[in-house]
Amino acid sequence: MRSAVISLAHGLTGAALGVMLRHPAAALLAGVISHIPLDETPHRDYRTALAAIVDLVATAAVLAMACIYLHRRQRAELVLPLLLGAVGGILPDLEVAIGYFYHQRLFFPTHTGLLPHPQLQSGNLGIWTQVVVILLDLLCLGVATAAPR
Ligand SMILES: [Zn+2]
């Protein structure tokens, strides 16, 4: 599947930005904007639709765990910014998913070729760049959640 940083990296980056911004609309916008530098980071894309489905299920599971964690930490007010940030981060790839089935025109600048979208389909560097992003996201989520209200 072309043009897709894994949704876990996009979703967690948007979620982390949402928790840091603490505002639902700003979270959604920041999530969408964060999609650009992540797509521009050299990465490896999915090779099968099954991998995309597994990635989406894993993303939903991690986000659900993050929401449970926020409730347990008495930070329920951060759930909506977290979820909207995640939705914003993943949203631009919806056109890629739809295009996989219907081959319609793409609009997001990293999907059209207007902005670079470097692919690393051999070796593991393209996987490690996403692992680093995910770990940084988790660190930011933890720090932002622990910060005072
Ligand atoms: Zn994308």
Structure description:
With 149 residues, the protein is an all-alpha fold. The chain has one domain. Helix content is 69%, strand content 0%. It contains seven helices and no strands. Helix 1 runs parallel beside helix 7 (125-146) and helix 2 packs parallel to helix 4. It is globular and about 45 Å long. Bound molecules: zinc ion (ZN). Residues 3-5, 35, 39, 92-93, 96, 110-111 line the site of zinc ion.
Give the beta-strand count: 0
User: What is the straight-line distance between the termini?
Assistant: 41 Å
What is the percentage of strand-forming residues? under 5%
Helix content: 55-70%
**Anisotropy-based shape:** globular
Number of separate structural domains: 1
Largest sheet: none
Order of helices and strands: HHHHHHH
Instruction: Give the mean pLDDT.
Output: 89
Distinct bound molecules: zinc ion
Q: Radius of gyration, Cα only, in angstroms? A: 15 Å
Q: What structural class do you assign from the helix and strand content?
A: mainly alpha
How many helix segments?
7
Low-confidence stretches: none
